[in-house]
Write a structure and sequence with these properties.
Layout lengths: L1 H7 L12 H8 L6 E4 L2 H14 L3 E4 L4 E5 L5 H13 L9 E7 H15 L13 H16 L3 E4 L16 E4 L6 H4 L6 E7 L2 H10 L2 E2 L1 E5 L3 H8 L6 E4 L13 E2 L1 E2 L5 E2 L31 H14 L9 H16 L1
Parallel strand pairs: 1-2, 3-4, 3-9, 4-7, 6-7, 9-10
Antiparallel strand pairs: 5-6, 8-12, 11-13
Helix pairs in contact: 2-3, 4-5, 10-11
C-alpha cells in the first residue's frame, strides 16, 4: 500500500510510523493541526483528552458493535447473503461489520439454518485469517463465554490449533444469545455472528439502542417505507435498509457514530470541520460612520429602544428614527472633527 501511495502522491505527503501509545502521544504533541483517530474506546478517550488540552481538533472513532434487525417479511435469501458478506468480510475485522443479528422469531429457525448451510461451505479462500494471535484469543474467548452461558454453536466455534490453520478461525454462528454474553456487549472483530431472537421490530430497536456503541445498524425488510420509519428511531450514526455499511465508501456521505463509538465524522462536507477553519472577510465601503460608534449619548439609547420595540411589533416611536439618525451622525462627526 505504501508503495502504491508513493507512486501517486508528492514525496513526503504521507508518512507512517509504527509504535504503541507512546508513539501516538508523541505525534499528537508534535505540533499537528488536527488528529483523526480510529481505535478502542479506552485509547480514544486518552487521545481526546490530549488533543483537548493542546487545543487540537480531533475526529475520533472508537469501534462499533453493528447489528442487523431481520424482520419476518425480508427477502430471506438476499438477507442471508448480505449479512454473511457484512459479517465475514475481512473475517469481521472491520468497524462496520455485522456482529449481531436480531431476528424475528417467525423466521429465526429458517434464517439460522440457511446461515449454517452457507457458512459451513466457506473456506480460508473466502474468509481471511485473524490479524494476530491476540485478536484470535479474544474471538475464541467470546465464543466460549457464549457457549458457557447457554448459546448454541450452530457452526464453527473451534480453532483446532493445527499449524495449517494458523490464525484462521472458522465462520461461527451462535444462536440464542442474550446480553449476559460478552459477544453481545463487546466488540468481537472476528468471523462470529451472534443471533438473538426477538418478538418484533420494536424489541430490535430497543436492544440496538441499549448498546454502548452507536456506529451503524441495518434493517432487512421488504416494506421500505416501514424500514425508513424504523431507521429514524435508531441511535446510531449510519443506518442502511437491506444493506449494510457500504456508505463508508461513498465520499459524499458522512460516516459517524454516537455513544462509545465517538463523535468523529469521516467523509462528506461535515468532515471538513476537523481540517479547516472558517474565515470571514468583510469590506465596508461606506463613507458614513456607524450609528453605534462612540461617543455614546441619549440619542443612541433612544435609537436602540425604538429598534428593539420594532422587533416585537411596537412601531409607535418609528417616526423618530430619521431625526435620531441625523442627530447621531452629527454627534460622531463633530466629536471626531
Amino acid at each position: 500500500m505504501l508503495e502504491r501511495l508513493a507512486a501517486e502522491l508528492p514525496d513526503g505527503l504521507v508518512q507512517t510510523i509504527e509504535g504503541d501509545g507512546r508513539a501516538g502521544a508523541a505525534l499528537i504533541g508534535a505540533g499537528i493541526d488536527a488528529c483523526v483517530f480510529t481505535g478502542s474506546p479506552r485509547t480514544g478517550r486518552i487521545v481526546r483528552v490530549q488533543c483537548a488540552e493542546l487545543g487540537i481538533p480531533a475526529s475520533v472513532e472508537m469501534g462499533g458493535k453493528d447489528a442487523a434487525i431481520v424482520l419476518g417479511d425480508c427477502d430471506l435469501p438476499r438477507t442471508v447473503a448480505g449479512i454473511t458478506s457484512w459479517s465475514l468480510g475481512n473475517a469481521g475485522q472491520a468497524c462496520g461489520a455485522i456482529e449481531i443479528a436480531y431476528v424475528e422469531k417467525a423466521i429465526a429457525n429458517e434464517f439460522v439454518e440457511r446461515l449454517r448451510q452457507t457458512w459451513t461451505r466457506l473456506t480460508p479462500e473466502s474468509v481471511a485469517p485473524m490479524g494476530n494471535a491476540r485478536q484470535l484469543d479474544i474471538v475464541a474467548a467470546q465464543v466460549e463465554d457464549a457457549r458457557a452461558k447457554g448459546a448454541t454453536v450452530v457452526c464453527g466455534g473451534v480453532h483446532r490449533g493445527e499449524a495449517r490453520d494458523g490464525l484462521w478461525y472458522p465462520p461461527t454462528v451462535l444462536d440464542g444469545c442474550d446480553e449476559r454474553m460478552a459477544v453481545m456487549q463487546d466488540e468481537t472483530f472476528g468471523p462470529v455472528l451472534a443471533v438473538a431472537r426477538i418478538e418484533g421490530a420494536a424489541e430490535g430497536i430497543r436492544r440496538v439502542n441499549r448498546s454502548r456503541y452507536g456506529l451503524g445498524a441495518s434493517i432487512w425488510t421488504r416494506d421500505l417505507a416501514r424500514g425508513e420509519r424504523l431507521a429514524e428511531r435508531l441511535h446510531v450514526g449510519v443506518v442502511n435498509i437491506n444493506n449494510h455499511a457500504f456508505t463508508g465508501a461513498i465520499p459524499a456521505l458522512p460516516w459517524s457514530g454516537t455513544k462509545d463509538t465517538g463523535f468523529g465524522i469521516a467523509n462528506g462536507p461535515d468532515a471538513l470541520a476537523t481540517f479547516v477553519r472558517p474565515r470571514v472577510t468583510t469590506v465596508d465601503a461606506s463613507e458614513l460612520p456607524e450609528l453605534y460608534w462612540m461617543p455614546y449619548d441619549s440619542a443612541l439609547r433612544d435609537l436602540g429602544e425604538i429598534i428593539a420595540d420594532a422587533q416585537i411589533g411596537r412601531i409607535l416611536g418609528a417616526w423618530k428614527l430619521p431625526l435620531l439618525i441625523r442627530k447621531r451622525l452629527k454627534t460622531i462627526r463633530d466629536f471626531f472633527g
